[in-house]
Structures are given as C-alpha cells and as structure tokens.
Amino acid sequence: MGRIGWSIHTFTAVTDSSGIAPPHVSGTPNFRRASAALFAAGLGTFMTLYCVQALLPSLASDFDLSPAGASLSVSVATLAMAVGVIPLTALSDAWSRTTMMSLALGAAAVFGVASAFAPNFPVLLVLRLLQGLSLAGLQATAMSYLSEEVHSRSLGQAMGLYVAGNGIGGMIGRLIADGVLQVSDSWRWSIGAVGVIAAVCALVFHLSIPPSVRFVRRDPSPRALAKGIARALPDSGLLRLYLIGFVAMAAFVTIYNYLGFRLIADPFDLSEGTAGLLFIAYVSGSFSSALAGRLVDRYSRQLVLVPALVVALAGLALMLIPQLGAVIPGLVVFTVGFFAAHAVASGWVGARSSALGVQGAAVYLFFYYIGSAVGGSAGGTVFSHSQWNGLTVYTGCLVVVGLVSALTLRRLRPPHHRTVAAGGPAAEREAPADASESAEA
C-alpha cells in the first residue's frame, strides 16, 4: 500500500565492460516490460491484501463477530507479511528474484480462491495468514529487483508505476469485492472473484517480467542478515522513521476498517454497496505519493513529511462531522496525507539505510505491517466501546505521535556512507548532508 521505499540492498552499478547487460532505461522495451510487470504485481498484491475491508460488515454478520473480530481477517494477513518479509529477504538473495515473485503472486491467488470455500472463520483466518506470508515473498524481492535491473535515472519512474499499482490495487480490490457482494449477496463470491483476478495479475507478471541479468546470487546468511538488521536498530533517525510508518499505517488501516460500520448505521443508514463506494478515495493516494516525491526533490523530506501528517489530522477532524458532505472530503484529505507521509518516510528509510549499509528497509516494512495488524485490531476495540468519536481520538493520537517524531527529524545528522568491497571490510566516508535526498523519486 503506498510507496514502500527503495531497495533493501545497497546496489553497486556494473559497468558494460563486465559483460553484464546494462540496466533498463526508460523508453526501452525491457523497461516497459519490467514496469508493466511490477504494476501488475502491485495491483495483485494490494487487491488481495485489502479486499476484505469492504466485506467486514458481512463477515461480522455471517460469523456473528464484533467489528474487531471481523477485522482479524485483515490483521492476520498483514501480520504474516510483517513476520515473513525479513527471512524472505535473505532467501531472495539465494534464489531467483523473478521466480520468487511469480510463485508469491500465484500462491496468494490460490489461497484467495480457497478462502471463498472456508467452512468457518478460523479456517478463513488460516488462509488469509498464508496469503500474507506468500505476498511477503514479493515485498521482500520487488525493490531489490528494480534497483538491480533498472538504471538509477529511470528508477523513480519504475517505482512510481509499482506504487501506482499498489494504490490502484487497494482501491480496485475493495470495489470489486463490494460490487460482487451486492450482486451475489455473499462475501464468498466476492473474495473468490478477487482471487481469480489476482491470478490473472500473476500470469501477466510472469509473462511480462524480464529475467534478472544483473542479480548476483548469494548464499543465504542468517547471521549477515541479523547483523544488517542489528545495525539498523540503533540509528535514531531510522528508529523515528520506523515509528512514523508504524503509527501512520495503524491509523490508516483503522479508518478504512471501520468507516463502513459507521456509514451503514445512524445517521447515515447507507447500504453496504453505497458505503463501499467511498473506497474510491483510496486512489487519491496514488497521486499524493507521486506529488510528495516531486516536492521532496524540490524542497526536503522534512518540509514535506510534517505538512503531510498535518493534512492527515485535518482529514480526521473533518470526518467527525456527521454529514456525508464532510465525511467524503475528510476521507480524501486523510488518504492524501497518509500516502504522502508514507512516501516520504519509506523513501527516507531506503536512502539512509543504503548510506549506512544496513537492512533498514526490511525493518521498516516489518513495523509498517505490524502497525496494520496490531493498530487496526486495537482500533476495533476502541470503536466497539467508544464509536467514531473515540476512534477519531485514537487515530488522532497515533498521527500526533508520528508528527512529533517527524518534527524531531530536523536535527537528524547525515549518515556515514558505507560501501562493502567484495572480500574486504566496509569502508566508511562521511556522506554530504543532502546525500540521502538524491535517492528519493
């Protein structure tokens, strides 16, 4: 969902004299194929992951669950992604990038179709957990593939299409699930339909993706991975960015999980189908994340990150007004702010991690999806006891925590850049103050 950040691994360009094919450049056939394939991957991933948000009221009714209980169908999938992304990062280094991504998308589609036949809610949760674990294989690999195969001057464009696939997939998955629900009156048909479309996305990806030609296979080393993660944890700048990703995602998933429950009750009394149409607001995030990247290039990360979080707070406040004329624009404003903040924070993590030579991007993804799993479920408990007003206070506090963290980043020192020569120790040099800025799309 939204901009995920740059490669988990530091990438050193290979010169043409090495005999390895040059990286893909914008306008070339292989660049178009790679971009189309990663767009399909992003589409299938977030369509599969978040389609059930539109089905939560139906799941609650069918299985006699509370809103918090129904939201576990979202939380278990994102939790599995959080847990799986770090070990699968190591596995992706030892295996084929494209094979792992193809199998991840295919497996997620199969588990999606199987979910339509779940006899009870516990079985549905197991299948959703397996879906999340499968999709972690894609998340652990896609960024590395792009950084290896695409030229640095064209990486922003390729990343933008992947991010656009994420945002559009999140919206389409919800709308398809909601539309099928209105026709069939069954969440099973909805989740099965999304699974079939995800299978089509997996097939498009498999047929389109150019093979890895610049990938250097490495033996999986849990010790090296653990060291890279351990070095990423003490850095105060990365810690604050992890916190921003955690709280922002927790607030975002909470709003989208429980807004449907609010809109089908008094004073709105909308049908589930009409309430589901509000998920169209999700697509606004695709535009705001791209805009945030351009603004970062022109100004700075902090000068974009802080206003983005303030915008998200304004959207929350606007949604408090019990009128659709306020709720709809409030949701759009909140979504714009979240995606812009996530775009900046994740890009900042990727750039700073590369400069430090650590596995910061993997850790960021871990906290990001933990925020979705834990924060979203906790929000259901708040909603059950305090309704929308209490939920607004809860999500508002989360965003304020992120805002305070963002404000403290003004004093963040530039990292020491590390490059690791083959077979040699890490050589460190002081990075210029704006070194991390150049990595942002």
Description:
With 441 residues, the protein is mostly helical. The protein has one domain (24-439): Growth Hormone, Chain: A, CATH 1.20.1250. The chain is 72% helix and 2% strand. Strands 1-2 form a two-stranded antiparallel sheet. Helix 1 packs antiparallel against helix 6 (121-149) and helix 13 (301-319) runs antiparallel to helix 14 (324-356). The model is unreliable at 1-18 and 417-441 (pLDDT under 50).
Notable features of this structure?
441 residues, mainly alpha, Growth Hormone, Chain: A, two-stranded antiparallel sheet, 15 helices, disordered N terminus, disordered C terminus, transport, MFS
Quick recap:
The protein is mainly α and 441 residues long. The protein has 15 helices and 2 strands. It has one domain: Up-down Bundle (Growth Hormone, Chain: A).
Biggest β-sheet strands, sense, barrel: 2 strands, antiparallel
Task: State the CATH superfamily name.
Answer: MFS general substrate transporter like domains
Number of domains: 1
Oligomer: single chain
| Helix/strand/pairing category | mainly alpha
Nearest-angstrom radius of gyration? 21 Å
- Supply the CATH architecture: Up-down Bundle
% residues in beta strands: under 5%
Number of discrete helical segments: 15
* SSE sequence, one letter per element: HHHHHHHHHHHHHHHEE
Shape: globular
Number of strands: 2
